Every structure is written in structure tokens, then in C-alpha cells.
Amino acid sequence: MPRSIWSGAISFGLVTVPVHVASATEDHSVRFHQYHLEDMARVRVRKFCEVEDREVRSDEIGKGYELTTTQVIPITDEDLRNLPLPTAKALEIHGFVPWESIDPLRIGEGYYLQPDGQVAAKPYELLRQALARSARVAVTKFAWSGRERLGLLRVRDDVIVLHAMRWPDEVRDPSELYPPAADVSDAEVDEAVELIERMTTDRLEGPDFVDHYTEALEKIIEAKREDHALPEAPEPDKPAGKVLDLMAALQESVDKAKTSRGEDTGTDAEVHEMPAKKATAKAKAPARKQAAKKTTTGKRTAPAKKTSGKKTAARKPRRSA
Fold this sequence. Notes:
By secondary structure, this protein is α+β, with helices and mostly antiparallel strands. It has helices at 77-81, 121-134, 186-198, 212-225, 246-260, 275-283, 287-292; strands at 6-12, 15-23, 35-36, 41-42, 48-49, 54-55, 63-68, 71-75, 90-98, 107-115, 136-144, 147-156, 159-165, 306-307, 310-311. The chain has seven helices and 15 strands. The longest helix has 15 residues, at 246-260.
């Protein structure tokens, strides 16, 4: 069971719900320490006092605000616990909004809220059911870790979840990252939407949603521990190169998505006539007939070169999509 990292109360109008806060997520990343490569001795960071020039213990270290280079204001944990703010020990609800109206960029860490004892059970359940029925999320304010923050309260299964939020000025303006102007046809958009439909999944589960990096790293650690040969890296996919026909690339991607789901890619595939494909169709004409034709300037086309035993006409250069 995760430990409580904060305790206070949800303030919902005149209703108060005492709660404990526990982290809703876990980090399963493989962690490394720093070692001296020559003898593999642990490299540690030691804390020294600049005035006494000696290492200090953890119980000798506190917080301070540097007012000037010569004046530091000490701040104790007791000072932070007794901040003159209503949000220091409470999650104050200030309103309710639709979940879809929240920009995901502003959503941060997630925490589970647990009712603090039997006295909190009924108001907790009241708020949980009301949130679930209203299809809204609550916007709250709270003070943690030396700052006041915005938060969201929503229901996940049978538990109220708190999401920390970023303030509006903490989200950078993306205007300087806008892409250059580009013309995209309706047919290309339709094909991209078709690809999205084919790749849509109901749940983020399965082999595509597994942390393969950590798995591979654990295999390397195990091989080195057992003094075995390191596992071979898989062959990387060949780069697709420059895409000259965006529609063709989209259609191929749709076909691959269908194949991966065991769907038929033959009869129901939607075909779009593109200029590049017409040029390909012309290329199938016998070379002797192509050579006999005259261009608009009165010149004859050059005979086609032999490739793989078949005669083909010279192709027109494709236009980039």
C-alpha cells in the first residue's frame, strides 16, 4: 500500500472531506549509480559547509532564502506547515468544468485521495458519486512543496484522483514552432483519417505498449552478471527514404494496418487516381509504340532501356506530394 505523502481535507462548499494523499503512479526505470571506472568504487556527492570547510550531517541542513549575497533568511518546515493560506492544509474546490475542456499539457502528476477514517467515508462517497454523475471534474487549489498549485479532482474506478496542474504561464507559446505553409488535399486527409481508424485501439494494452527499453536493459545486466555474451541488437528497419508520393505512402500504411489486424486488403481497398500512377500506366505500353510516337514539339521519344529483361518507356519525373 502506498504511503501517505500529505494529509488535509477537501473543501467542497460547506462540506469538508478529510483525506490522505498517496502517489497514484510508480517509476519502474532501472536506476544507475556513479562509479570510478578504474576500481568500480562508488562515487558519492558529499555536502560541505563553505565557512567551516567540513562535511555536514543531514540534521544540520535546512532551507534558506538568499535575500542578498550576505543575508539569508532561514525557513523551517514548521514555517511551511503554517503558511497563512487556506490551501496549506486543504484542497479548495473553486469550480467544475468538463474533462474535455482541459488542455492535457497542463495536467501533471496523479495522486489517489483516501478518506481519513470513518468520519470521512460518507462525505467522500457523496463527492465521488456526484462527480461521476455530473461528468465534470473539480478545479481545486492546494499548496505543496513551497508553492500554490492548481489541481483537478476526477473519479477513477471507485477512487477520487487528484491531478496536479500547471498554471497557464507555465505552458510555452508554440507559435514560433508552427510548420511552414503546405498544401494538403482532401483526399490525403481522408486517407490519413482512414489510417487513424485502422490504428485505433480501445485500451493501451498489448506488446506495443510495453517498456521494451527496460526489458532490454535488464537482459544486458543479467548477461553481464552471468558473464554471458550480450544479446544481439535487432536489425533496424530500413529508412523509408524521401516520400515522393504521400498518398501512396498513406495507402501502404493503411494496408499494413489491415494486415496486422488480419483484415483483407484486396477487394475493399480504396484506390485514388494520382498523376504519378497514370505515368506508371503509360510505362507499360510496348517500347516500340512509344518510340514511334511524336511529342508536341515533333521530336520522337528515346527508346526505353532494358531493365530486368522487360522493355519499359522512360518515366516522367514524379512530383513531390
